[in-house]
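Lecture 7 notes: from sequence to structure.
We start with the chain below.
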Amino acid sequence: MSVVDLDKLPAEVAKLRAAAGDRTIGCYSSGHILTRSTAREAAEYYHYIVHDNGDWEGAEHIVSVRIKGGGQSIPAEMVREMKERHMAGIGSFPLVGSYDEVASMLKRLNDAGLDGMAVGLVNYIDEFPVVRDELLPRLERLGLRKPLRAS
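Predicted structure tokens for the same chain:
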């Protein structure tokens, strides 16, 4: 499922599960992680990716196709947010902030009913060690994953 508004997510998940009736279903989404040791550094990185280097023309095209395909009228602020999401993470949910903030957002998504999330990174080579060394231990402490056992 697509997460548009984190505050509305619990009701959306509940509605999906109610529609499933007796069937047990998993609810999953996708997101993109832009994290740094401080919220300020993460915000600066986000600005660098989206505002300093973003392909606004390409994002305009993608979003206009999506809007036309849906036959809907969308407020300008939401259109701008959609463009930013496409430049930062192919339209997925933004997880932007310090390591603690991103871990807390993932906890909040789980508490809202999501069973899991596929996540993207801007630069896997540079950023996956951050996920391994900073985010995964925090997710363990929050009870979102089991500690890795040495084999």
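Points to note: The longest strand covers residues 28-36. The chain is about 55% helix and 15% strand.
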